[in-house]
Batch of 2 targets.
Target 1
Amino acid sequence: MKPAVGSITQSREAPMQPYEKFLAEILIPEDTLQARIRELGEEISRDYQGKALMLICILRGGVMFLTDLMRSLTVPHTIDFMAVSSYGAGARESSRQVRITLDLQMSVEGKDVLLVEDIIDSGHTIASVLELLKTRAPNSLRVCTLLDKFERREAEVPIDYCGFKIPNKFVFGYGLDLDEYYRNLPFVGVVRPDKYMPPD
Ligand code: IMP
Ligand code: MG
């Protein structure tokens, strides 16, 4: 695999530094995130009364959002996980082709599937996953994303539930990583452009 184009530095030790070094600003503070997730949970709970709700989380970025969202749901539901990777792309580049690296353990047939994503950027990842899942005969298929970087959209994707529309800036924290680190931060932060340059 070719090295990621926009690595924090060329050194692997770099991400083991305190996150403050890479933080330009906090875009969405913890309380704002949590309040919005509670609202989304209420809305989803209303819409899925009496349905066979199955949440599908795309690893790894969506994990934090999934677990908080689940706690705000009042309807019974199951969860499952998928992992995908882009063909021939660096860590943060997007590609039109995605490959399933971890498939679901459970069947989606007849289920009311809600895809739970951390961020929709170009839209290619979610578009491919939707295309695949449609072939497996779910009863319904919808998308819930915490963040929508709408200015970068290349593939058209229907978003049924959206936490926040955000500007075209590289963000990290609350599940989103910078070279796999800092996913644990309870807020969404913008990366300092002088410390880190995304590939495009
Ligand atoms: P898409 O296929 O371009 O929509 O890519 C979506 C994926 O790219 C997300 O699930 C993230 O893993 C990653 N991504 C896009 N923008 C960001 C960002 O600002 N920070 C961290 N990861 C990002
Ligand atoms: Mg992701």
Note: Residues 61, 94, 118-125, 149, 170-172, 176 surround inosinic acid (ligand 1) (CB under 6 Å).
Target 2
Amino acid sequence: MRQVRAKVIRKEKLLGELERPDARTFNRPEARNTSGSWLVWLRCPEIARESEPGQFAMVRCGEECPLPRPFSIHRVNDKGDLALFFAVWADGKGTEWLSQRQKNDTVELFGPLGNNFTLKPGTSKVLLVAGGMGIAPLLFLANQVLKDGLSVKLLRGASGEYKPSGKPNPSQHYPEELLPRGIEDVKTITTSPDGREKMVLDLLTPEVINWADQIFACGPTAMYRDIAKRKKELGLLEKSVQVSLEMRMGCGRGLCYACTVKTKTGLKQVCKDGPVFELDDIIWDEIASNI
Ligand code: FES
């Protein structure tokens, strides 16, 4: 784990206004995204070169945020740059601060932290299931396994507005042109206006499940709970499904216990024992629905 002061190399706004899947379900108007989703590249070779897909970094986000904030590592490049992809929600002071940094500003962060996605011996076909901003750590994994010659399919979903024409608004989805080259198949779905139909899980068909050797998912807890409940019906009993958990964190280093979850093998800390877990290891009913 390294602690560094990194320069902002580049910043781009990638998506327009979004809504968290839980914003309506739990009547949380503050969960609306107010200023879009951002891609921020930081020059920090010390962290970038040690990072593995699934890991995260803690970023100090200005004086108004006494605690550092966790961000999935989204990409790294050969120059030692590291990208963070995040949405700025109305209740997100830290993300708002980060989105306002300009080129050459300095950002303090430490990482890489946590465990990473792991490929089992013999895996050659990888299925990625991304709910909303969950695409952030999955594209790092996609880049790496594509370089190693594996086949990758991506299912992605986003909640969000419909255009007046009734068509899903494509601005809710990570831009197609920034997806790693070589993904065999990208299926995209946008949640209907009532939030009930057309979830990313509707793309999880027996055909695509049979194709995959391993499945990696990142998205809201409700999505994981649904997959866990429907494992048999979906034909997933024999498949390894690794999920990346997003939790509120304090220290990011296993010291404060703010990120504790119940698993079948006891209490675990998401920052230290995760954020990647086998779907079956988590006791989903013990995790709050609005995380
Ligand atoms: Fe402090 Fe995980 S954030 S123990």
Note: The mean pLDDT is 87.
